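> call design_seq(struct)
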């Protein structure tokens, strides 16, 4: 027989899933729920904890407990890289109509809020090895955050690393006020004569840090996916390393691998 807190959680869960309790709806206080279900406040707290762990509700300190709004899903496919390359040489007006986030989410440009910041740093060991350069080499570190305008958390946490001297031939590439750049990184690299040959992506998973959980607004127990993308030019040189932290509750990675025919 289910425990009392499980029965309360089942009742509230059913109300959420049927739409009786809609996204954004404020739940009664713990005391009120205890009176409604004729159980103790600790029992109600255990039930709410289950629903928070499932990502169905969220507690806003000092305000109350609310039904969690569904977040926009992002479906990231490896075919996006060829899609981006195909756009890199298009006229700016055409490139500006849509971007990678729109491609992954199905949203329109005016549905999104975008932020980028650049800074110059020295290459630490991991990045230096990935780029095949010496530690301490000057890099351009680019940080990106994009979110749906109706939501408060970004789709992912993105940090890209370029060798500064490799892109300095176009001063516009060193200035974050030029973001969002129509066509993205491949279009930027094209302006300094770099064409990509292949992209390697390495994916792992782990629990989020407290900072990641807060920024991505993750339900308790949700893991993050860590994607390291290394882009190589047609001469086999690594030209961009990008680290992406993806929320496990609203990201789908989809890989299609064409096979040669016999």
């Amino acid at each position: 027989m289910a425990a009392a807190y499980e029965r309360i959680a089942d009742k509230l869960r059913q109300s959420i899933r049927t739409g009786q309790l809609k996204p954004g709806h404020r739940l009664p206080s713990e005391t009120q729920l205890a009176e409604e279900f004729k159980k103790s406040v600790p029992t109600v707290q255990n039930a709410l904890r289950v629903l928070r762990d499932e990502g169905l509700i969220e507690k806003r300190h000092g305000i109350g407990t609310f039904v969690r709004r569904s977040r926009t899903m992002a479906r990231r496919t490896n075919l996006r890289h060829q899609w981006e390359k195909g756009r890199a040489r298009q006229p700016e007006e055409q490139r500006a109509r849509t971007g990678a986030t729109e491609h992954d989410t199905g949203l329109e440009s005016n549905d999104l809020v975008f932020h980028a910041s650049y800074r110059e740093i020295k290459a630490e060991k991991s990045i230096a090895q990935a780029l095949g350069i010496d530690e301490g080499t000057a890099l351009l570190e680019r940080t990106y955050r994009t979110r749906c305008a109706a939501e408060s958390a970004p789709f992912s946490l993105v940090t890209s690393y370029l060798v500064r001297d490799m892109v300095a031939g176009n001063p516009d590439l060193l200035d974050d006020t030029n973001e969002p750049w129509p066509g993205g990184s491949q279009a930027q690299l094209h302006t300094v004569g770099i064409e990509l040959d292949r992209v390697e992506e390495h994916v792992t998973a782990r629990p989020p840090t407290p900072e990641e959980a807060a920024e991505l607004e993750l339900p308790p127990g949700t893991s993050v996916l860590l994607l390291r993308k290394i882009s190589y030019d047609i001469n086999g040189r690594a030209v961009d390393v990008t680290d992406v932290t993806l929320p496990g509750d609203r990201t789908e990675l989809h890989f299609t691998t064409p096979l040669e025919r016999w």
